[in-house]
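Anyone else keep sequences and structure tokens together like this?

Example one:
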Amino acid sequence: MKLASITAHRISVPLLRAFTTAVRSAVELETVIVELRDDAGLSGWGEAPISVVTKTTTNAVIASVEGPLWSLFASADSVEHALERLEQSREPSVARAAVDCALHDLAAQQAGISMSEFLGGQPAGTPIHVTTDMTLSVAAPEELAATARHHVSEGFDCLKVKLNAEGDPLAAMVAVRAAVGKETILRVDANQAFTPEQAITFIRGLEKANVGVEFVEQPVAAADWAGLAKVSGAVGLPIMADESVWTCADLDLLLERNAASMINIKLAKTGGIRHARRLADRAADAGLGVVVGCMLESSVGIAAAAAFASTLPVMAQDLDGGLWLAASPVSGGAQYRRSEIWLSPAPGLGITGLSWPRSSGTASSIGQ
């Protein structure tokens, strides 16, 4: 096998509704879908979603993919060799993640097995799915309650509520709990919105009101390790680190400071599946809980993340990003069925090509 070419597809897909967090509001997905072809005509797929969270731009990702990254592994004589070379790169993590996933997809196709099986999951012939939560955008308490009821009626039994420090976040969570009853799992994601003192007051309020929350995600600024540790030590609810943990070095800092009891692993943060596996293994060895999450991204990135998640202990993951899109930019691959993501039994990710309904895009290719 030799790698033949790489194409960076610039894609824009409208959202079904605005996606609002404490740090941004979006009405469309801007992403780069990477297509990596070998000399046998197989195509591996990966994705680099663009946002303030991924800390880069579309042009920068395309330049990285077609320039330094392609130059690094274009002459590799195997996918494994290419992945080893990719380890040397210091290009943006989201660009590395797209290439890493495309390489894994290509390797699984060459082996004739699904991505899940290739990563150590169940063998072919076994229908595989993972379960996801559903995210609620930042909104007023009454709107959050109505949205929560709607998603529960659709079959979601785990909701993640985005909050900010404005208004009354405790009242918002009380309203959501009243709307969905006791059986629905609720998660909170503050996206760095609180000071440590605000976070402690809010979380103690949740505990006192017996709202029933599984965990509170990234309550303080990503770089505020002391603040995160202060919150974790002052409350009873589990605290999850997301924006704080991108690498194994970040995880080491978290463990040194006892700053959180859970982490959210996203391929766009780690630089792909290989580093995500290391992070998950080290977190498990340290006794931390792990949830696999996503950026706002299409079914390309979701399929890779879901395949990775299928090899980890079963729990509701955080992979609803593709449900916000008005259309998928690709055909084939993983499919949403309400709260379930069913993986394709076909080799690799099972993606058969770009479809681009109601989306726009341009592409550029580099080949040998």
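And example two:
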Amino acid sequence: MSYVKQLIGMFFLVIVVCGGPFMLYTQKEEIVFEPGNIVVHTVYLIQQIAEGSLGTYYSGQTERSIAEDILPFAISSFELLFASVGVAVLASIIFGLLLQRFRIVRQFQKVLNLLATIPDFILIVVSIVGAVGFYKLTNIRIITLSPVSDAESTWFPITLLSIGPTIFLMKVVSLKYAQIGGEDYIKTALAKGMGIWHVLIHHVYKNIKPFLIADLKKTIAITVANLFIVEYLLNVVGLTRFIFSKDGGYEFNAAVMGLLGIILLSILVYLLIRLILYVIERAVVYK
């Protein structure tokens, strides 16, 4: 029952956020506050849903059905989110835990810690500028910035999207590794002649995992925040296109469906990562 209440609360929160431009706006150099506009648009949205339709939105001069486009858009955004969070989790476990004792890895993490001081938006923009410069030097195109063309590949958006969460999660895991690695039970296990890989997997990982899971939500939140930037700048066809249209006006129904879809995808990605970690743990740690 509590989950149902949370979903209902999430729905109305999205309604308020997406209805902001209709509730508070300027007219003839005066600020107008009309909360009733949200009610009107919400009633219309519910009527559309009751009729089996999610409404329409404009892509340029073309009116398109939200119901027809939401599934392919959601699949595209899901691929970016899941792959980026997966890269962050995998990199944090490999470099923040398993290979942490190697000097070259620690030096690499120092570079990442330096990059962590730079806002993700700046890192994304610099990466795009670098890709453009690479194209000028080699005539090899890896991104599409034309407003009339969609992104041809997903590997570059995934790479950009995984930078922020990877830096964050790897830092968390490496810090916990340093703390747990000095505990007495770790020293005792090594003194008994247990192999380093056995200690890392069966002792260190077990104690790091709760912190990894706890910060997984923050990792997904960072990824979602960057998703808006990456999909918009790289012309990726995803759910953010319902919210930020380059050639169409702001549509309430489309914005609500897009934001709700992103939130639900975030929950799905979180559950899938938890499931994958559980399966790996049962297959490797507790075998």
